[in-house]
Design brief:
Rossmann fold; two-stranded antiparallel ribbon; alpha/beta; 226 residues; seven-stranded mixed beta sheet; 9 strands
């Protein structure tokens, strides 16, 4: 398909359920001018989510949509779509949003919904990923930003960051190490979208415009642990 792009500054709709640390990294990147994007609205399925307070602190519209008011996911997602449309949202960012999206929402924003996952997909999808990583004895873990499709954590991968897994790691220490990179790669993925540099072909996302010197450097890059 053609490269994904929008004209002007990208308007973001961020869906959250919890404390919103990735939301904060996006807001900070926007305010610092590191991304050509603004957060137009923050939507949560949890009334007292701290992420909503973060939004209000920055004078960003914060909306709670109560899932208990809807009999099915499609009804809830239709309410989300209505809010996103009214704010002219170009790109939807899931930042700790703990509800599965219905096909209705995915179709409405095909290849315009991003999610961040604290593992190197396709390894360890779903929940409790650091526990799974430690149990399997992997030497590296990391985080992934991907486009969202109709399944769980299976959409085309945009960007990944890798961290070592240390022998004395716990779920908490590994999560904290990964979170540092989550806050770096999510804004970067948004900026790549804003610049129109992303192209989805099947299951692969191609990033155009990378300098040849950077490509050559990566051809010989590698890391060993331990």
């Amino acid at each position: 398909m053609a490269s994904l792009s929008v004209k002007g500054q990208v308007r973001l709709g961020v869906l959250v359920s919890g404390r919103g640390s990735n939301l904060q990294s996006i807001i900070d990147a926007s305010h610092a001018g590191h991304i050509d994007a603004i957060v137009a609205i923050v939507i949560s399925d949890v009334a007292d989510a701290f992420a909503l307070d973060r939004a209000r602190t920055h004078n960003i519209e914060a909306a709670f949509v109560d899932p208990k008011l809807f009999e099915a996911r499609e009804g809830f997602d239709a309410a989300i779509i209505d809010l996103l449309r009214k704010r002219d949202v170009d790109l939807v960012c899931l930042a700790g949003f703990m509800r599965l999206l219905s096909p209705l929402l995915v179709r409405e924003y095909r290849n315009r919904i991003m999610n961040i996952h604290p593992a190197l997909l396709p390894a360890f999808p779903g929940l409790h990923v650091q526990r799974k990583a430690l149990k399997h004895g992997v030497k590296f873990s990391g985080c992934t930003v991907h486009f969202v499709d109709e399944e769980t954590d299976t959409g085309p991968i945009i960007i990944q960051a890798v961290v070592p897994v240390l022998e004395d790691d716990t779920d908490e220490s590994l999560s904290a190490r990964i979170l540092t990179y989550e806050h770096q790669i999510y804004p970067k993925a948004i900026q790549l979208f804003a610049e129109g540099r992303l192209e989805v072909r099947g299951r692969r996302v191609f990033c155009h415009g990378m300098p040849a010197s950077e490509q050559d450097e990566k051809r010989n890059w590698g890391v060993i642990n331990p």
